[in-house]
Each structure stands twice: as C-alpha cells, then as structure tokens.
Design brief:
Rossmann fold, 3 domains, 20 helices, about 40% helix
Length: about 500
C-alpha cells in the first residue's frame, strides 16, 4: 500500500476514535504531505488556521496531526522545523499518543544537528533558528536531501531576517581599543540628538554612516565573527537597512543592520532538499505567488484550505461613514464607539482585545477605559483576568495571542498596514521605490492581509465579534482584499444588542 493510502486510513481511524476534530482538512493535508514525502517534492500549504483553541494544547497548530501522521509512517528520515515552545508539547503529548495508536517505533530526537548514527531513519525536531543558521552559513549540521517540514512558515521571513540581522550592543563597544572611543563619542552625540519618535528608533543617516566607515581601517584585524566586522562589511550593500534603537533613559544606543530582501539568500536552500512549508496565512492567493517571490521559492505545489462556512464565521461590525484614520474626527468617534462596545460586553464576562497601533492613542484610550473599568484594563500585559480588557498593538497581539483565553470581542482601530512613519517601514519602502517595485502590493498589503487573518483566528473558535473601525475597507480599492481575507463573516453596520446577550 502506498504511503498516501496508509496515512489516510490510519489518520481517519485515529480521528474517529481518539481525537475528534472539527477541522475538515486533516485527511486532505495528510495525503498531500504523504505524497510529497514519497515523491521527494516540495509544497506550500496554507491551512487557514494557526493554533488550537484547547487550553491543554495552547501553541500547537490545529493541523499538527496532518503532518505528524505521514512523518511517523514514512520509512525515511525527516526533519521537522518547529519553534522550541511547540516542540515541548509535540514531544510530550501529540507524538507519543499518535505513535502508540499507529504502532510505529520511529526514533524521535531533537537537537541542533543531525544524530551521529549514520543509520538514523527517524524524525528529528529542530528549531527554525538552528535550521536556518545551518543552511545560511553552510555549517553542515544537517545533511542535504532530507525531506523537511517547516511549521508556522508564515513567520519564515521574520525568522530569516532575525537570523541575518547584525546587532552591536552598548557593551560591545567596551571591548574595542582606545582609538575607537573618540569615534564612539562623536556617534553617541549625533544619535542621542535625534528627536524622539514613538518607535524609539531611526535610520542611520549619511553623516553617521561616514563616521562608522572610519572604523574599518582601525578594526581590520578583528575576528570574522565580531559583530563590528560583520556590520562594517555590509555597509556598502544596498540590500541592507541600517538603523539604531535608542534607550534615552540609559543614554545608550544599539546599532542594527539587516537585509530588505531575502529571496536571493534563501533561493539556493530550496534546491538542497524537498520542503513542505505550512502556515495559517501565507498569501492572499492560492498559488502563493508573492509569498514564494519573497522567499525565493520556485513554482511548487500550492494549496490553500478554506474556513468552514458554518462553524468558523465571525460577526463583523463595520459602521458606515466612519471617519478615516487620518482625520481629526477619528479619535473622538473611535473612543466613543469602543466605550459603548466594552460597556455592552460586560454582561458576557469574557476577555476583550483592543488593537490600536498608534502609541499616544493607545495610552489615551487605556486611561479613559481604566477610569471606567479599573484594573480590568491592561496595556500589553501577557496575563489578563477572565473578564480583562487588553489594549495592545499589532506586534504584541501577533506575538502573544496564543497565550490568552479566547476573546469574545476583538476591536480593531486601524488596519495592520505598516506605517511609513515607522523608520524601518520607511526604509523598506525607499528600497522598493529605488528598485521601481510596487512597494504597496509586494510589502504593505501582504503584511496587512497576513496580520488581520491571524488576528481574528481566535474569534472564529467562538464565533465572536470583530469590530473594525478603519473605513479604508470601504473607501479604498484594496478594501475588497481585506474583506475577502476576513471571510467567512456575517457583516452588519449597526450594533446588534443580541450579540451581547449572556449565553446559557
């Protein structure tokens, strides 16, 4: 029996008797992965889901059974790339339970390199950091031609950029000779004289870059692993963004440099082994064209699973005629609407999440709500009460949403379109413009679509309520793409009091 048939029958029996699930794509996804393993081919799979809503399985992808089953039944070695936190749950619960049911005895190990045994035919779990570090820097820790499954691949660009970012911290300067101190003092004065901004960072300007260039002849003998050596070597590369983050209280700064485009860096990696990239939301299109372009992926099999129209819809409130975010009327009307929704939601005694990116606006709203609702209101805290009100930005919700109970109400002040006021965003936009590329279609819009789909996923679990107060979904041409990304939903333009009735 070929692997696909074995996987299908085994997983079907397991789901029926051991692990009932309301996700309807388990079997299809498992068969596709089994086929890619058997034929040694690559694939991109958009699951439409991120993490399980079960308190006992927080942080574990709902679709994990779909890749674990073929991985355990395949008669070849496999690498599974998954963050460390998720590895703990997979190794302690999901894999042992599934392996016992399947009656397989495949070796399961985890680590930052391939086992020393040349006959190893098991499943190796490793982190994205270790795998990318090996592949980018050609360390030889993992052999080539081993089928590789990468979970949470919607974060792959983020992981790669982090891996390729060189940082010079304040303590690094203390290791340098006295001859550098005058350059450091000059740089320190310039950097600390920049005006404040909400992001506490800014791009390195030409004057500062010239000062940094003076370090090259002085530090020419440094070890190749020195952050200064790596940083200075990259300065001439136009594919790099140079920025500085500032701690004004400590009067310190941190230098950073990272690539804008990573496609050319990753493209050779995909030729070394078949890979299956899996993630909730990778691209607005089934073919994942822009996603593959960003990662340098060739034209591979691409699948995109849809949400269940009956069990995974959200109640979507978008009021008509709402002021645009860049108008003076926006703040007042926004605060009034949020206060109304939060007051009505009290009867349900469930968490409320308010995503508001503007830093000053975030603080003002939190103060207003705290005056009325007291300590229930928290700003970017990783723990809240069962009836808590969390006010946070997009990045915070992106990083920690799996840690929170399922909210009944998610309020979105503005779309997650990266703001050009952020120096790092401005730097990326400038790069695209200089290369005559469509910076909105290739960067801003794909980022917004991924973020908003990921953000509302917990609400689908409870068929809760999403209030969206950014009228650009109605007044801009790209609004239809945003709304398509939110499907399925039941849309309404007025506050329906029945939404807030207490459940039995």
């Amino acid at each position: 029996m070929i692997l696909e048939a074995t996987v299908h029958s085994s997983l079907l029996a397991y789901l029926r008797e051991q692990n009932p699930s309301n996700w309807q794509h388990h079997l299809t996804m498992a068969r596709i992965i089994a086929r890619t393993l058997r034929l040694q081919r690559s694939a991109v799979i958009q699951t439409g889901h991120t993490f399980s809503a079960l308190p006992s399985a927080k942080g574990i992808a709902r679709y994990s059974l779909s890749y674990l089953t073929p991985a355990l039944l395949a008669d070849s070695p496999i690498i599974l790339v998954v963050p460390l936190k998720e590895q703990e749950r997979l190794l302690s619960v999901e894999i042992p339970q599934l392996q016992e049911w399947l009656q397989t005895h495949k070796d399961i190990v985890r680590g930052h390199r391939w086992p020393e045994s040349k006959s190893f035919q098991g499943l190796l779990l490793t982190t994205p950091e270790d795998w990318l570090n090996d592949r980018i820097n050609h360390l030889g820790h993992f052999p080539y031609n081993i089928p590789t499954l990468i979970d949470q691949s919607d974060r792959l660009a983020e992981w790669t950029t982090q891996q390729l970012t060189v940082t010079i911290s304040p303590s690094d300067w203390q290791t340098l000779p006295e001859a550098v101190q005058s350059i450091y003092t000059q740089l320190h004065q310039l950097i600390l004289s920049h005006p404040k901004n909400p992001y506490e960072c800014f791009l390195i300007d030409e004057t500062e870059k010239e000062i940094l260039e003076k370090l090259k002849p002085i530090l020419s003998d440094l070890d190749s692993n020195s952050p200064f050596k790596k940083y200075l070597e990259r300065i001439p590369d136009e594919n790099q963004i140079m920025w500085v983050s500032v701690n004004r209280e400590a009067k310190e700064f941190t230098l950073n440099i990272s690539p804008v485009e990573i496609a050319n860096i990753l493209q050779p990696i995909w030729e070394k082994q078949p890979v299956v990239l899996m993630g909730g939301f990778l691209d607005s299109e089934k073919t994942a064209t822009i996603y593959r372009q960003q990662l340098g992926l060739p034209d591979v099999l691409s699948l995109k699973f849809s949400a269940n129209q009956k069990s995974e819809y959200i109640n979507l409130y978008i009021p008509d005629g709402f002021p645009l975010p860049n108008t003076p009327q926006f703040q007042g009307v926004l605060f009034q609407q949020i206060q109304t929704l939060v007051s009505l939601s009290q009867i349900r005694n469930e968490p409320i999440i308010i995503i508001i990116e503007d830093v000053p606006l975030k603080g003002q709203l939190a103060s207003i709500l705290a005056a009325e609702f007291g300590s229930r209101v928290q700003v970017e805290k990783t723990e809240i009460a069962s009836n808590g009100i969390l006010v946070c930005g997009w990045q915070f919700w992106h990083n920690y949403q799996a840690n929170f109970p399922i909210p009944q109400l998610l309020i979105i002040a503005t779309l997650p379109i990266p703001s050009p006021e952020n120096p790092l965003v401005a730097g990326r936009i400038a790069y695209y413009k200089n290369h005559r590329q469509d910076w909105f279609r290739l960067y801003l819009l794909p980022t917004a679509l991924r973020e908003i789909q990921r953000a509302v996923m917990p609400i689908r679990e409870s068929q809760g309520f999403v209030a969206l107060f950014d009228n650009r979904v109605s007044s801009r041409s790209y609004g239809t793409k945003i709304l398509s990304a939110l499907e399925p939903y039941a849309r309404i333009n007025y506050i329906d009091l029945s939404w807030f009735e207490k459940e039995n």
